[in-house]
């Protein structure tokens, strides 16, 4: 019906085309690709029709070309001449489709010889709602032919901006090479993105990138229980910076920022172009709702007489084979109201599928019990979800680096007698000399917090695990030490117990529990440090600084920008519902309320240059320099899947970055004289990672080599490192007994009821010790979300925009990069089929694919997205 009305008003096809200038004037025809706001609840459907009537009333989307060659005489020639407005045509004939999608529109510009070559354009949106501008392509520009503009940006109604929205061609310029008429626009766009520095709450249309401390994790107004220290800006709690939101301070603590209610979590501010796209958002929401405890709990209590416990391993398996019905609650209804209509279909399914039926994790797909073996326990330190901690043991017994004045003697109590009979006939000295002893050491990280952690519902230890490298290339655990703070005070050191392998009877059950305490330590360190701190939190300052200091025309902006997609948004969601006081992470990971504070203490030892994979492997004593080995490094554990595949990916990234940077920077002097680049690096050090600004290890950014190394590290961390520690979460830890996230009881003592239960019903005793039922469902709900690839994911070696640069040589280098990664995929598949490489598959029959570059959407256990995007 609306179509008929519009046709009657405006003529046959619903469009009014305005002639610009005389009928003989030369036209430049262009195509604009955009996506209109379309969230499809009832009100917004009317909004999309309002767009159309506004068009009839003369309100338009206008575009004006900006000259790259001729200045505007009214601006002293310092700005490119701006052409007459042209308007989108054929807008009216497009009824907004029910699925938010792209549309192409024609636009015709009058050709003004004084414009000459367009290098930018200004767009004004006079509709009442925003639109997503993808590209503008000009055809047959006199003397130039085709000119392409890559935009990929939300454009809000003009009333929301104090400046013009400007977009540039896909040309690349160093600051000093920028055509003079474009320099003003280049510089002004960076000024706009930096904002005015006023501490006022930011709105969704603001495009401001600025820094803030992590001061919004607690809610002190709710009481001391919910107060959390500000992370960042202090010697005690250093931290990378987050994106500024500037909400009002809390009433009880002016240094803490107030929080949004949980039902408004989707509205937390990030610059609009950093928000998830509509496909990603619906994918994310469909699974995110699983992990809200308030409406899971009633369902569990209604179906189970002991709601907080699994009684048998078969009970755990029901999560994957039975499923739970979705309950109703006020909170759920509240959330329903706040979610756009187009997303509800997937979330509140009408196909009878049970929402809480989880996919079978890979670790138990082939064999339900192989996860319990010592070989698999050790293998996952090399090919699991946290393969970045294990290091070579260089002294025996292991020593602590904790300050003895504060913590007393924290050195290990493991003796030669504990391990000498388990080294396959080799002495301890020989094993150390021949690089055959390794350690998973969580002692020093946890001990300073352990006394406080154990005042919560958590009851756990600080662990050390020593492993022996066997002749067949696999590792076996030979001893586990579990330590507690001394009951009389920290200054008296640790009290420790040592456990050795056993397979049968109560000794076998105790060894199984000892491994579980190690897994609890490792899962917490993994989630808080390997994953959150070292990828998510460490990368966000680079996202902010790049947008503030490097123009979209800058080659390094073009190089790095794909590796920042969705990072600010996922981190903002994390602050809102995961890492906040009482959030999902605190509920499911053993350090509980001390989790984020503990990650801040670990950040004190963060070194940018050590995030490079070769440096990390050398620091951990796993690799030594060797010019005759691939990539110049010899691995001391040859079959170390993460390191083997990682070095292939690292080298491919390094070669690509080297080829790219060498095209634009032909000398060190060019690096030094690039004002934007120098400002970017200065701000990264002094603001983004400001608590580390005086560290001597920062590259000075004086040479091409420093630029190449730094960009390689940034890309590695954002892509491959994050993939290695993220997408294996559900495949390995979706079955919680394999990687429990917390422990609720200490090791049973002989003569106690717990010990008797361990003797009579070891499985029940095990399940009563590790993560309870509610936290298990919360935890695996969370890691299922985090382990999924969005259907619109962009992987390493790919670009969302094919025409991202005009320069042929970088484009060819990028193609070569993609080809190298394709060959790496072939090598990974071949290695996974090599029976001699036992660590690649293991007893659980689970090939190592976490660094396999590509993937389809969903829960695949492979694929390296370009960015920390989930």
UniProtKB/TrEMBL annotation:
InterPro entries: LipOase, LipOase_C, LipOase_C_sf, LipOase_CS, LipOase_Fe_BS, LipOase_plant, Lipoxy_PLAT/LH2, Lipoxygenase_dom_3. Residues 43-169 form the PLAT domain. Keywords: Dioxygenase, Fatty acid biosynthesis, Fatty acid metabolism, Iron, Lipid biosynthesis, Lipid metabolism, Metal-binding, Oxidoreductase, Oxylipin biosynthesis. Pathway: Lipid metabolism; oxylipin biosynthesis. PROSITE patterns: LIPOXYGENASE_1, LIPOXYGENASE_2, LIPOXYGENASE_3, PLAT. One of its GO terms (molecular function) is metal ion binding. Its EC number is 1.13.11.-. It is an enzyme of class 1 (oxidoreductase). Residues 237-259 are annotated as: Disordered. CDD domains: PLAT_LH2. It comes from the Eukaryota. Residues 172-870 form the Lipoxygenase domain. SMART domains: LH2. GO terms for biological process: fatty acid biosynthetic process; lipid oxidation; oxylipin biosynthetic process; plant organ development. Its cofactor is Fe cation. Residues 246-259 have a biased composition (Polar residues). Plant lipoxygenase may be involved in a number of diverse aspects of plant physiology including growth and development, pest resistance, and senescence or responses to wounding. Belongs to the lipoxygenase family. Monomer. This is Lipoxygenase.
